[in-house]
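Researcher: Sequence of SRPBCC domain-containing protein follows. Predict its structure.
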Amino acid sequence: MTPSLFSHAPEPEPAKSQDPIADVVQTCTVPRETEDAFRGFHEYPHLWWPEEFTTFGEGTHMEFEGGALVETSEDEESATRAVVRDIRPGELLDLEWNPGTGSTTVSIVFTAEGSGTAVTVTHTGFDAARDAAAQREEAESLWRNVLQRYGRFMGAR
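Model: Prediction complete. Tokens:
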């Protein structure tokens, strides 16, 4: 028997929702006032940024230049890591992070804590990135290592 011309198609399966990818939050405390902590992060990354977290590896010069976080190789090749969206010296550095797999957001907040400064990196927006879970895992390792190196550079123990 042939089904009726007026029969309805089966109801579509409801879309399966994915759990959101958690933000990465890393904090370190440095024995400096907020202005100095900010300057150490913003003006001197070439002195402390871990080479293993650069595009070009050994000899890479990392700096904030022209509203962006830029890596420059020994051969003068360059790669933009992030674009600065907001900057408030001594308080906040807000970045659009783009390692080539989709944009995410990184906020670095500087907060007075006792005689030092708590520096908190919050990396968000992994749901929109390609291979979101892997991006989040890489970001967690990146910021943990970046803050360890930055903290030592600024005199944290």
